[in-house]
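User: Show me a protein chain along with its predicted structure.
Assistant: Here is one chain, sequence first, then structure tokens.
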Amino acid sequence: MLRIAIIVVGALVWFGTVLASLSFAHNVRVWRDKDAYHLETFMVTDVFFEARVAAEHSLNKQTKGSEGACYLRGTIRGKDETLAPAALTSGDVSCSKSALESAYPRETSLEVWFNENAPNIMLQGRTLRVIEGKSYFDNLGDSIRNYIVFGLVPSLLLIVALIWVKRADNRAKR
């Protein structure tokens, strides 16, 4: 029974650490390249919404409607770009076409950090190329530190504790 508990807890810790490390890797990459980012104006031309039917047991407790991939299409210096608005991740705007269109009508201009050399790949609802918000870099160092202190270190300590308990259990069986 102890073995099953250790396997389940270890798998959950590993899975959570992997998911959190994606966001951590994004933040570290942005921090490393922060000198390449400069403020630009993002002009909204359209919203993108790809619906998936929400399950009744979804994490955000939606039982009706839909959820899916949401982002803004627009231009920076006349070139087409995409932006995942910060209001989506903070929960201020729901991920639906109508909510996006009312929060970000066409011709809305947003202050963004732009790095034209970064890839335009969206991961966990964020891109490296276009980042919304003047104050983004103000809290980025805190975000990286908080992940290490409150995410990575406790996970590693829990894994070490699980290994220690398993070794103690094996010794007791001898």
